[in-house]
Amino acid sequence: xxRRSFNSFCAGEEKRVGTRTVFVGNRPDSAAEVxxxxxxxxxxxxxxxxxxxxxxxxxxxxxxxxxxxxxxxIIFLVQVTVDTPTSPVxxxxxxxxxxxxxxxxxxxxxxxxxRADNEVNKRTVYIIENxxxxxxxxxxxxxxxxxxxxxxEAFPCDLILLSSCSSDGTCYVTTASLDGESNCKTHYAVxxxxxxxxxxxxxxxxxxxxxxxxxxxxxxxVGRISIYNxxxxxxxxxxxxxxxxxxxxxxKNTKKIYGVAVYTGMETKxxxxxxxxxxxxxxxxxxxxxxxxxxxxxxLTKAAVCTTLKYVWQSTPYNDEPWYNQKTQKERxxxxxxxxxxxxxxxxxxxxxxxxxxxxxxxxxQKFLGSFFIAWDKDFYDEEINEGALVNTSDLNEELGQxxxxxxxxxxxxxxxxxxxxxxxxxxxxxxGVTQDTDGLSQTDGPLAYFDKADKNREELFLRxxxxxxxxxxxTNDAVDGATESAELIYLSSSPDEIALVKGATKYGFxxxxxxxxxxxxxxxxxxxxxxxxxxxxxxxxxRRRMSVIVKTQAGDVLLFCKGADSAIFPRVQNxxxxxxxxxxxxxxxxxxxxxxxxxxxxxxxxxxxxDRQLMEAKMALQDREEKMEKIFDDIETNMNLIGxxxxxxxxxDEAAETIEAxxxxxxxxxxxxxxxxxxxxxxxxxxxxxxxxxxxxELTTKTIEESERKEDRLHELLIEYxxxxxxxxxxxxxxxxxxxxxxxxxxxxxxxxTLSLILNSSxxxxxxxxxxxFLQICMKCTAVLCCRMAPLQKAQIVxxxxxxKGSPITLSIGDGANDVSMILESHVGIGIKGKExxxxxxxxxxxxxxFKHLKKLLLAHGHLYYVRIAxxxxxxxxxxxxxxxxxxxxxxxxGFSQQPLYDAAYLTMYNICFTSLPILAYSxxxxxxxxxxxxSDPRLYMKISGNAMLQLGPFLYWTLLAAFEGxxxxxxxxxxxxxxxxxxxAKLALDTHFWTWINHFVIWGSLAFYVFFSFFWGGIIWPFxxxxxxxxxxxxxxxxxxxxxxxxxxxxxxxxxxxxxIVLKNVRRRSAKRNLSCKKASDSLSARxxxxxxxLRTFSDESNIL
Length: 1107
What we know:
By secondary structure, this protein is α+β, with helices and mostly antiparallel strands. It is built from 40 helices and 34 strands. α9 crosses α12, α13 packs antiparallel against α31 and α35 packs antiparallel against α39.
């Protein structure tokens, strides 16, 4: 009994290890001996982080994990429990303000997520129950329910397609919300359920689906469906990704479909894809934490010094217990060690405002609000896709200004991914042009001596291969069955290459008319319709780098057509067929074209029966299906005959070359990581100016290594040779290395995937255990690196390898396809291109832009300004708090270290919240110390802030010494005036502001006005809840004196004088440099052109531009 109850609670545990069983309509097979309902999650989507009950504790826990918040909590508790010189309100109120503002922000964001979840969960859907359409909310769907979806509706969960209104059981789906692909994709129902397209007929279905447990890969699905007839005999059919309709996708061009729910709620592929994204931290955040530790050390030092000096002062009996302040008996009996500890805590509380509690919330607001400037930038708007830039995370804005390495994909990133068929090669003959007759267009590249067949038969065989070997779908603008001559054919495919090849075949007279009921139709140049039965499709994958189809002709012959990369096709064809085509492929690759080789073979009937049986068995497997299919594909695609090759052009994106030149000028190293051929990738790199004509290329490829019998020895020799060549060219300093690029010979490195594997996985003998370190030394000296034939995992490995270099350089990855996601997630900053290979890269990136050219402004302008702004914000916060609290420290030397506060509690509380917070926030959002056009036109300015230059030890010490100087000036200058320094700090911020807006004027002068108003208000009223009111009428009395006004003006000028002097010297030096540059230009133009009048005009024009 107990075991039965336990099994009912953990229902289907045996199946849940790797698979799950779903009964269609939740109707188990009547022949099943025992049926125990399995437990699956409901269809509710939960993207929110908090609930009403856990918001407060969970949010507080997360906020107090920050060192500054936790520190102020400890200070507040000390003030509550220990007799301290300041009220607990002075630290409690600012802490409460910061915690409250952050909680409101995070709560609002989570409320938006709750609202979005409710919109999805409460949406109306229709379930088929007892042959009736039952209206329900989406969250009520259970696994096994049969769901009806109509045209233009989104699928409420992951469904297995059972039937559609189409007679062949197909439906069209767009997955724009999942991967951004707007093209219609075709999905299929198994042939046994195609006819069940009414609620009454679907109710009669008795079937069970066995499939894998939920996993996030959008493009993989393994399952099988067992359909039971009236005699309880089961017919099993395989299920794959083509049968699965994903939640979030939309039904298009199909009136309605029926599907059974297999994954619901948080187990859908869409939900699994939005979970587990790691949090990235910027270099600025690390600097903030380091500065906090330094200032905490300063705080501890101040407290320790004052505690020590207090007891030195009290070593004299008169100072220890003066006549006007006698000790109580309890104080005399207290242990001296305990009293010293209490005094130390009291000094900690007195000086605790040196730690800026409000800095974190200000930084968060600056990042959040600042990210809108990227989204609002009109230069990032692309009319073709009607979209602009998108910020997926605002935590890395300043990191855009600190990039050292840029890793970019080639296809779709540097190029348009808009393919155009250029030419083809058939048995060594080159075809280029447009005609309906293939005769007479062949330009011979070599002798024709293959097979005893006529040339025309081989040409037609090649063109039929292009029309049949693909996964292209066709859409016509009329609703008739098939296509007519007048119908406009629209080809749809997830691969632009395939559409280009099909259109290329059309140029030579062979037109693909579409697939219907498993039959592919092709119209030949004689206007005859040829029909082929599609038996099997061996889909493309990045490991095989090829795809094949098996078709049966009307005559009953079974043919295999295969197309793929030359490296994947050449080893599988006859050796004597390779040479003529290989020369054509290499020449096209040198021209920058994308090449594919085409092969075929005839399959005997007996062999086909064996192949068909093996494929069906592999498709039915639930465990290791992909590995089994891979092995069968490998066996089938052997001993083929090479027909020819194709050349497709992928045009370079607009301004791609200019963007790479600008990045190089800014001191960034650009690496191209691509899966393409070396020749094609090299040609593209020259076209986009990654490699210059003067660049000396160093190759570490299979071709250069295979010259030796032992590859590792040859690799070691090349690595040593390249390192020797590069070491004497460049200085050791990384900072001077960037400047040296323009003064020395430029080097570029080319490496392929197999050589990289050899470097990363080399044996651990004495000759090869340092491959990786030597390789990295070479890479650091090269201005550009091309990595070709790269697998997605290798792209991520390269990024990780560079990230772990000495000095931890900042890396940025940019790509447009699913194969780029791994390197985008691995790098410090990931940028996705909203391209034609889907939106997987854009969805997983930190920022997404429509084109590669937008990277220039994103880094050189936005990144530069974001970094300068937030660096100034961070330094300013520490500066103003040290300037504010230093007089408090100095005051202890004049009050016998009695812990007497210098400032009134109200000013301590309001200083960070009201007096000084808004001006720096406005500055950090709006400041433009250099015009945006200047930043983009002069990339060298980017180098001035690289390496986290503004948050290094030098600038930090400068700001600290400046704060100490100004704090000392105000203390000693206002020894008897009890004046705060918020006037001077806002004045300094006004001095630093280069780009004035009405917002800057409002917050800077408004904060000063508020300070004056608050001082009058606070000191002008007798507050009944205060035990003592030390500031009553003090401020008004002070301002009534002319000497006070003169002292304020004089002290502000003295404190800011070093800063003013420095600015003046910088301006004089800058103008002198511009004048020298102008004179140099004038002398150059004089020597080049002797005409006086043009010289005067040109010099005047240059002078006016400079001024």
